[in-house]
Write a structure and sequence with these properties.
InterPro entries: BTB/POZ_dom, SKP1/BTB/POZ_sf. The chain has helices spanning about 65-70, 70-75, 85, 95-110, 130-150, 155-170, 175-185, 190-200, 205-215, 220-235, 245-250, and strands spanning about 50-55, 60-65, 90. It is mostly helical. It has one domain (about 40-265): Potassium Channel Kv1.1, Chain A. It is globular and about 60 Å long. Bound molecules: zinc ion. Zinc ion binds near residues 33, 34, 258 and 260.
């Protein structure tokens, strides 16, 4: 798991997460996603291919039909045009085993972690320590980026939902290293960028507080995203409607940060098994 390279710097001072195992805030019942992705048909569970992950070459086997149903990237890689389509072996040397393990768990179970007690699970939440929380923010951002690069919209949506749950329950801003990672590895239209900017704006009292607490190390694109959100709130008269309103944020429609382009995403050119 990656370690922040710079000290965490929230936009405004926030209450540190309790080290207690029980969360102090319980998520309300939320409206389910308006465009849930259906699973593939039984034919997708055909034969397994081998994936070697990370520099250590950890070997993972996944049904080819399941993989190509959810991912346009793997569907293209396993087509006859590439050597992987012949050997049925894919090497992902640059990927982190922890990130791929979350994807591997998700593609079979719909969850990012096998344990329902894990903070990566939406079923049974345990409040992490502040150190764990920062690492989890970064891990979830990496899972989103993995889904983005491999054409897996449903994985991105799961990462957004768990980030929303984790942020709401700990009520602590995304730290500098997570923001820097996100803005380095996503495009200007990324739903993850929008989510993080929206979340961190909630903690602001006004622009003066942003100026006082901001770091010169923030990505400039992030600063513009925050300023744009503040300006939008000013024009609508809603600012600072969301400030400190935890339940309001908890009940937000997460679909505004989802990718509803379906299995394989917008890059899908041919129908997958399903
Ligand atoms: Zn949705």
């Amino acid at each position: 798991m990656a370690t922040p390279v710079v000290p965490a710097t929230p936009l405004v001072p926030t209450t540190p997460a309790s080290p207690a195992t029980k969360p102090t805030f319980v998520m309300p019942d939320l409206k389910p996603c308006s465009h849930p992705i259906q699973g593939p048909c039984i034919d997708a569970f055909n034969h397994e291919i081998l994936i070697k992950v990370g520099k250590e070459g950890k070997e993972v086997r996944i049904y080819e039909g399941l993989l190509t149903y959810h991912s346009s990237y793997f569907a293209a890689a396993l087509s006859g045009s590439f050597i992987e389509g012949q050997t049925k072996v894919i090497e992902l040397k640059e990927d982190e085993v922890e990130v791929f393990s979350a994807f591997h768990c998700w593609i079979y179970t719909g969850r990012l972690h096998p344990s329902r007690e894990s903070p990566l699970s939406r079923d049974a939440y345990k409040a992490p320590t502040s150190s764990e929380r920062n690492d989890l923010y970064l891990l979830l951002a990496k899972i989103f980026v993995f889904g983005d690069m491999r054409g897996i919209p449903a994985l991105k949506n799961e990462a957004i939902d768990i980030l929303h749950q984790l942020y709401t329950c700990t009520w602590t801003d995304f730290h500098l290293s997570a923001v820097k990672y996100i803005y380095k590895n996503t495009t200007a239209t990324s739903q993850l960028r929008q989510f993080v900017a929206h979340a961190n704006v909630i903690g602001l009292r006004d622009l003066k507080s942003f100026h006082e607490t901001t770091s010169t190390a923030w990505p400039i694109a992030y600063v513009f995203d925050v300023l744009q959100l503040v300006a939008m709130k000013d024009r609508s008269g809603a600012w600072p409607k969301l400030t400190g309103n935890r339940m309001h944020w908890a009940k937000l429609d997460r679909c505004q940060f989802h990718d509803h382009s379906g299995p394989g995403g917008a890059l899908r050119k041919t129908p997958a098994i399903g």
